[in-house]
Structure formats: C-alpha cells, structure tokens
Amino acid sequence: MASTTAPAAASTPARMGIVVMLVGMALFSLNDAMGKWLVATYSVGQVLLIRSAVALLILMPFLWKTGVIWKRGSASITKAERPWLQLARVVFSTVEVFCFYWAVVYLPLADVMTFWLAAPIYVAALSPFLLGEKVGPVRWMAIGLGFVGVIIALRPSGEVEPFALVVAILGTFAFALMVITGRTLRGTPDKTLVFFQLLGALVAGLAFAPFGWVQPSGPDLVLLGALGVVAMLAHICVNRAVKLADAAIVAPFQYTLLPWAVVLGWLFFDDLPRPLMLVGAAIIVVSGLIIYVRDTRAKRAAIAAGSPNGFGENT
Fold it and tell me: Suppose 209 and one of 10, 45, 219, 280 were both cysteines; which one would form an S-S bond, judging by CB atoms 3.0 to 4.6 Å apart?
C-alpha cells in the first residue's frame, strides 16, 4: 500500500507548483496588458517610476525585517557579491524593461511576447562563450531552429515600424544577458536581486519621467500603482513555484504567456496575431522545450557524476 500512495503524495507539491506557475504567468500577462494600456497615455519613464516606487514600498518593510537591507553578514545588500556584475545585471534588467514597454507601444502584445519567449534560445547560444557551459549538437540544432522561428516571426507587415522590431530584439538580448549574469550570482539571495532590479528601474524612471510627464487621473494613478503590485505577485508566484517543484517541471509553463498575450491583445487592443508570427512562435516554443529537456538531462547527469557546475553532459 505504501508503494502506491507515496508517489501520489510526492507528486502533490509538483502539481501545486504547476498551478502556482500558471497563476504567475497569468499575472505576468495581466501586468503586460496593463503596461501596454498605460504607455499609450504615459511615457515609459513615468510608468516605470510609479510602478517601481510602489513595488519597493511593498518590499521595503519585508526586506528591512529580514535583514536584507542592513545586516552584518553576507546576506546584506551592502555585502552583495561581485558589485560590478551586480551593476551589469541591473543595467541589463533596466534596458530590458524599458525596451519591453517601448515595444508594446508599437507592436501587438503577442508579437512582443513571442520575441521575449526566445530569450532562452539566446541564453543557450551565449552560455558556452560567457559561462563556459557545454552545448552539444542537439542543443545547437535546437538553437538554430529557434533562430529560424525568430526570423519568421520578425517578418513584419508594412504597418510595423522596423525601429520597433529593433527595440524588441534589443530587449530580448538584454533579458538573456540579465539571466546569464544572474546565473553567475548564485550566492546572492533572490530578494537582493529583486531589490537591485527595482532600484535600477526606479532610477531610470526618475531620469526619464520628467520628459513628457502627464498628470495621471485618479483611476490611472491607481492602475499605475497596481502595475507594481501585480508584477510583485507574479514574481512571488514564480519563486514559490520553483520551490514547490523542480524548475524543469514548471519552467515549460512559461509558454502559457503566449496564449494569454493573444487573448488579452484581442480583447483589449483588437490585435490579431499575424499567421507568420504564430508559425514563428510555434517554432520558438518547440526549440525552447528541446533546450529545456536537454539542459535538464545534462544537469541530472552532471549531478550523478559529481560535476561541480551541473553541466557535465555534452548533448
């Protein structure tokens, strides 16, 4: 009897992790749709300023209580490891979020989300050169397939400004570099990384918000603040999901962002995705899933072999 009930009990956290991850992706999609709605009226700098300020106000008491803001020890922000790399990650994260909100001004939400979902492909392509990770022929084939998907999705209609596509691609590369620098900062607590990320966006918002400032109405001010709350809840859900279940189980569910983007874009902005974009998105998703499967197998093999970096298999 124990042999039949134990697997079911063990799978309960994994199922809960999947549910929490799905909720997090839905919240991220809502955050993106709200952002697209707001940047139609307010500048990107203004949106980032209010969004980041509200998120930091929510985080600060918790960070202070847990000793992340000031504590005698390595967990303190004042003792963060590799300051220059921390600064580089903040720059990448700030460029990424700026480019995202800038891109959704001109492009349908589903198009922008498709480009951002290609970030794992860029991470896999850059990791051998920046992280020294091994990438075998199968994963190189998946990376090549992913780039084909990006090229197909990039083929714009005559109504799309090429500059918007450049901004979108720049944002995805910045996101990939943010992920890569985050991998090299494994000793930094997640709360510290989030604090630096929000602080960077706040500083950028302060710098750019005065240009084109529009006095927000009462309802819009609430919506701007809610943008920060929704983003924080989404991050909490994702962080909780990877604690409840293995990242290899929940990570593929990030691709639910795409159907959410299609539905929300159609409902609120009357945006219908182009057929070629959908084809490119499907190829990107398949490529990303292949990379996830291969990375998971490589990490498990490396752990079994006692590899210190978790990447011992060349597949």
Answer: 45
Q: How far out from the chain centre does Cα 112 lie?
A: 13
Amino acid at position 286, single letter: V
Residues whose CB falls within 8 Å of the CB of residue 147, separated by 6 or more in sequence, listed in order: 121, 125
User: Which residues lie closer than 8 Å to 77 by C-beta, 6 or more apart?
Assistant: 63, 68, 69, 70, 192, 195, 196
Give dist(CA 55, CA 12) in Å, integer. 31
Q: How far apart are CA 241 and CA 15, in angstroms?
A: 10
d(CA 282, CA 284): 5
Biggest alpha carbon–alpha carbon distance for the chain: 68
Q: Give the DSSP H/E element, type plus range, for residue 255.
A: none
DSSP 78: G
Model confidence at 38, pLDDT cuts 50, 70, 90, reads: very high
Among 74-88, 188-202, 210-224, 287-301, top mean pLDDT goes to 210-224
Encoded tokens for 48 = 């980032």
Q: Cβ atoms within 10 A of the Cβ of 126, count?
A: 18
CB-based contact 282:116 (threshold 8 Å): no
pLDDT tens profile 286-296: 888 888 777 77
Per-residue pLDDT at 145 exceeds 60 = yes
Alpha helices in the chain (DSSP H): 2-39, 44-65, 83-106, 109-117, 119-130, 137-154, 162-183, 190-208, 218-244, 247-250, 257-269, 275-305
Burial environment of residue 72 by CB neighbours within 10 A (0 to 12, 13 to 18, 19 or more)? exposed
Q: By three-state DSSP, how is residue 42 classified?
A: coil
Do the Cβ atoms of 273 and 111 come closer than 8 Å?
A: yes
